[in-house]
What we know:
The radius of gyration is 18 Å and the shape is globular. The longest helix is centred in the last third of the chain and has 20 residues, at 162-181. It starts with 14 loop residues before the first strand and ends in a 10-residue tail after the last helix. By secondary structure, it is an alpha+beta fold. 26% of the residues lie in helices and 23% in strands.
Amino acid sequence: YAAPRGTPVSTIGDGKVVFVGRNGGYGKQVRIKHNSKYVPILAGKDVQRYYYHEPKKYVFFERPKNAGGCWNKKMHLSEHKVLIRQICKKPTATFLSHPIAVTGNIFTVMANNIVEEKYILGVLNSKLINYYWQIMFSDFNETFPQVTIYSLSQIPIKETDFDEMSSINELVDKILEAKKHNKDADTSELE
């Protein structure tokens, strides 16, 4: 988070400083590795189109004996995945390339490789799918609009070859890079 010059760095517990310096458009950063049971976590509001807010919270990642929900460590701490926000009017997705856990109001898509994941991301955030969504699934619920697993499973995502996926990936990479440096960047010409 942004803080005035001279603000002391605080942490959730003991850890080892693994990085101090500038992190692209995110500015100065101090990264601390904690006990492996504490992991950074994102909530639904952190997920934007082609962008996510850096996690500010950590969670003690150990499944209680009688817990429900998803505690799949492989999924939560995957090195790459697509995140889809659940509470919104239409699919809002981004790509995550760090092992960060997510709350229950985020859907996670893991494909066979990064190329497939970024292809899916590009399709989900496309103008075409936005139009399709409005016709097929918009519930006009302004108070608590939701994206559901069922509605996501009905999106017609074309199976295609590596070359076609790669061309969409090039656009997705340009959008992700622009949003990394400026979350408000106008990328509409690429979408």
